[in-house]
Design a protein that fits this description.
Elements lengths: L1 H22 L14 H9 L7 H14 L7 H10 L5 H13 L1 H4 L1 H15 L5 H12 L23 H16 L3 H21 L10 H11 L7 H23 L25
């Protein structure tokens, strides 16, 4: 409970300190309001004026709930199980989970989506289906953005027909886009969501459905809330520490054996060669 309560403060205060020491900005430290929710306090202690709208707080709260955990497991939650099974303390277990989330393949997906969209807007002559499709094809052909061959925010290791978290978040984002006068960008996201699966299925051998995941929309939401990109992954941690805590409690209550891998060598057998005879 202490970690869940303190993670928002660690993240936002850490960001303010970063701005102060690296960007020479004034240091802003505001105590949290005990009458506010976690989402409300994040906006309250982050923003200089401490102001936010009910819709902003509601959407950030929904995002935190949706990011707390998801079906099928994930890398950082599995890390919680593995490290907890050794009998170590809570702080060591959560530190290991944070280390997992820090990896860009796990915690940096929405940042990639935002940067991809920024590159798209900078290079599109218009937002027509033809122009957007052409750019998406270039992404898959490794000719655009970071040349990874990926359309970020599309597809998931577990969810195929749809990511229910993305469906829930999308239902609320349109209202915030209207409040922030960001309907044009919202329409672009909608267009990418509609066209990308068709283009991916044509160019790749896909044996399951392709749909957008929650990271496709969460970065857009954070941008509309004015959250700095440096806080995107820490906010993920603020949400996911709830899931990690649940997994740790489960592992401790099971009181089972330590989790360890069973290695199986797949290389061909080789005769031993003395060191002096090795080339």
């Amino acid at each position: 409970m202490q970690l869940i309560a303190q993670f928002p403060l660690l993240a936002v205060y850490g960001y303010h300190v970063y701005k102060h020491y690296y960007n020479s900005e004034s240091l802003l430290i505001r105590k949290p309001n005990p009458d506010y929710s976690i989402a409300e306090n994040i906006l309250y202690i982050l923003r200089e004026d401490g102001k936010f709208t009910p819709l902003e707080a509601e959407l950030l709260d929904i995002c935190l709930v949706l990011h707390a955990e998801h079906g099928g497991g994930n890398n950082s939650s599995f890390t919680t199980h593995v490290v907890s099974s050794s009998g170590t303390d809570t702080y060591s277990s959560i530190a290991a989970s944070l280390g997992s989330l820090k990896g860009p393949r796990h915690g940096g997906a929405n940042i990639k989506v935002v940067k991809m969209i920024e590159d798209m807007k900078a290079n599109l002559k218009d937002y027509s289906d033809e122009s957007v499709s052409e750019y998406l094809e270039k992404l898959l052909d490794k000719k655009a953005f970071d040349k990874s061959g990926l359309i970020y925010g599309m597809g998931h290791a577990v969810y195929s027909l749809s990511d229910p978290r993305a469906d829930i978040l999308k239902a609320y984002i349109k209202e915030l886009a209207c409040e922030k006068n960001a309907q044009g960008e919202y329409d672009l996201y909608q267009k990418i969501q509609r066209l990308a699966p068709e283009i991916i299925s044509k160019k790749r051998s896909i044996y399951k459905g392709v749909s957008c995941n929650i990271d496709f929309y969460s970065g857009f939401l954070y941008n509309m809330l004015g959250l700095p990109v440096e806080l995107f992954t820490p906010i993920f941690a603020i949400a996911r520490v709830v899931g990690w805590s649940a997994h740790r409690i489960e592992e401790l209550s099971n009181n089972g054996k330590i989790i360890r891998p069973g290695y199986n060598a797949v290389c061909e057998y080789k005769d031993y060669v003395a060191r002096d005879d090795r080339k």
